[in-house]
Amino acid sequence: MNMLVDGEWRTDAYELTNEDGEFERGTTSFRDRIEDDPDARFQAEAGRYHLYVSYACPWAHRTLITRAIKGLEDAISVNVVDPYRDDDGWQFTPDKEGCTEDTVNGADYLREVYQAADPDMTGRVTVPVLWDTEEETIVNNESEEVMRMLDTEMGAVAERDVDLYPEGYQDEVDRIIDDIYEPINNGVYRTGFADSQEAYDRAVTELFDALDHWDDVLADQRYLAGDRLTEADIAMFTTLVRFDEVYHTHFMCNHQFIREYDNLWPYLRDLYQTPGFGETVNMDHIKEHYYTTHPDVSPKRIVPMGPDPDFEATHDRDDLPGGPPEALLELA
User: Fold this and answer.
1) Domain extents for the chain?
2) Catalytic residue positions?
3) Matching CATH number, 170-292+319-329, of 1.20.1050.10, 2.40.50.100, 3.40.50.300, 1.10.3720.10
């Protein structure tokens, strides 16, 4: 796989799997924080920060949803890379529908943004990237941390008073995000990129055991943490919304479609129809990326037409306790 090594772009420097054939996700490189503190290096300010994202990437998608729900569109600008990623990595192709140029650094490739932040960097070039236009550097490229910062530290410049990490729920939200990460969020990749039968069997079994568990949990509560929409639901949504269109077929997660689950499927539709979720989904970018960018998995690079699940269908989850925050209901 491709990465920067001592600031130089290499196409042969990163292995996806370990010696047992198990997919191993690399660590992120930039872990600073925006803080709502006048003494902080990265203060919470409107117009200072910029997001680099891919609509295709579930990790970047988390940050787009949080930005939309909080009403941070005017406070934090965004650029979108091409969903097709070749040996040169993520690219800016403004002539392609849904893509943009790099309006901040004028880069042709996202790796140039990383090199601008650290000319000697060694590491993978991933999205999302939270860029500070004042210090001209990357603040953070870890999606969970960026999501948390946008949620908890940018309230003073947000247009909507929506708390996705509320008091009384925080320990539960943290636990759920941790619990779903390895078997579900990362589990679809562990399944799809497995290089041995044993690694695949372990990953796919853990994936569907976890999906079965959360399907049971959602039988009598509207959201993962109970009656409140939280960051945990955003983390789950970005995997579930890609599942039937991509992971089921492309990554051989084919034991069951999400639309065959009694509770996960209406839960997914409920989230999709909540302001901030559905409008950040670009399924064309999602499908193009997965089916054309992983030739080891899909060598013909043909993008399938279906199955086109109906995310707008009635979900009947409003009968359960709780619901979207009032600030979001006003947008519906």
Assistant:
1) 3-157, 170-292+319-329
2) 57, 189
3) 1.20.1050.10
Q: Is 127 exposed, middle or buried (0-12, 13-18, 19+ CB in 10 A)?
A: buried
How do residues 223-273 score in pLDDT, each as one tens digit? Answer: 999 999 999 999 999 999 999 999 999 999 999 999 999 999 999 999 999
Q: Is the separation of the CB atoms in 148 and 67 below 8 Å?
A: no
Helix (H, G, I), strand (E, B) or coil at 89: strand
With 80 as the cut, is the pLDDT of residue 19 above it? no
> Can you give the pLDDT at residue 192?
97
**Residues contacting 322, CB < 8 A, separation 6+:** 221, 222, 223, 226, 227, 228, 229
Query: Helix, strand, or coil here: 57?
Result: coil
Spell out where the chain has E strands.
3-5, 8-10, 34-35, 42-43, 49-53, 76-80, 129-132, 137-140
Q: Is the pTM of this model over 0.90?
A: yes
